[in-house]
Amino acid sequence: MSKCFRFTAYCLVLSAYCLVGCKKEEKVIARVGKASLSESAFYEMIPPQYMAQLGPAQKRELIQRWVNTELLYQEAIREKVHKKREIAMRLKSIEKELLANEFLSGYMIKHVVVPESEIRAYFDKHEDEYNKEIRIAQILVATLEEANDILSRLKKNENFGSLARKYSLDPSAKNNGVMGYIKRGDIANLPEFEDAAYNLKKTGDMSDIVKTTYGYHIIKLIGARKTSKKVNYEDVRDTIENHLTMIKQKAVFDSLLDELRTKISVEIHNELL
Fold it and tell me: For domain 130-230, is the CATH number 3.10.50.40?
C-alpha cells in the first residue's frame, strides 16, 4: 500500500471519528448529583412569550429553583416516596390527565377552526344585541330534577324572586336572583348562558333550563337598554371569535367522546356509590 493511500485512509477514518465522537458537547448550566441541566433544556423551560422579559437575576432564580427541586426530588427517590401507594396513584392520575389534555389540545387545534367570514356573519346577525345591555335574573341549581321542579312551579306563576332566594346557588339569590346589566361578551366563557339570555325578547320572558359547567339555570329578562356608545365589529371581533370557538369546542368534544365510546367499552355502576 502506498504512503499516499495510507495517509488518505487515515484522514477518512479521522474525519469519521470527529463526526461521531468529536461532536461539540452541549453546555451544562447546572448539575445535581448525576442530573444535569443543559443550556437548551433550560431555555425550553421558559415560555417564548416571557423570554425577552427575563434578565440575569430571573434566570439565576430559575436555575436555583431547578437545583432545589432536583435536590428534593433525588432525596424523595432515595427515601422511596414514589413507592408509597397513595403517591403512586396520584402520579398515575397526573400522567393520565397530562396525556389526555395533550391529546385533546392537539385534537382541538386540528378540528376547531373559526374563519373570519364566520365571525363577521355572526356580528352582522347579532349587531343589535351588541348594542344593548340586558338585566337578567337567574335561578341556579345543581341537578336537572331540581331545575325541572322549579320551572314547573314558575309556569304555575310562583314568584321567581322567592324561588331564587330559597333555592338558587348563585350569589344573586340574596337579591331575588337579579344580576346587574350585562353586555354581549361579558360572560363569553358561558356561551350557552349568554345565548339563552339574549334570546329573551320581552321583559318578563323566561328561558328553558340551560345547562352549563356550574349547573342548571333558569333565566328571566328584567330589562334592556341601549349601550351608551355604538359598538362596531372591530370592538367585539375577538370576543365573537372566542364565543364561536367555545361553542365549536364543546360540539367537537362531545362528538369525540361519542366516537370513543363506540371504540372503547364503558361501564358505570352508579348503584355502588
Answer: yes
**Burial of residue 249 (number of CB atoms within 10 Å: 0-12, 13-18, 19+):** middle
pLDDT digits (tens, 9 = 90+) for 78-97: 999 999 999 999 999 999 99
Instruction: Give the HSE-up count for residue 177: Cα atoms under 13 Å, Cβ half-sphere.
Output: 24
Q: What share of the chain is helix, strand, coil (3-state, %, to 5)?
A: 60, 15, 25
Q: Using CA atoms, how far apart are residues 198 and 183, in angstroms rounded to an integer?
A: 9
Closest of 76, 185, 200 to residue 137, by C-alpha = 200
How far apart (Å, rounded) are the C-alpha atoms in residues 77 and 106?
33
Contact 166, 138 (CB under 8 A): no
Residues 6+ apart with CB under 8 A from 90: none
**In this predicted model, what pLDDT tens digit does every residue of 125-163 receive, in sequence order?**
999 999 999 999 999 999 999 999 999 999 999 999 999
- Going by their DSSP bridges, the two strands 28-32 and 35-38 should be labelled as antiparallel
Burial class (CB in 10 A: 0-12, 13-18, 19+), 186: middle
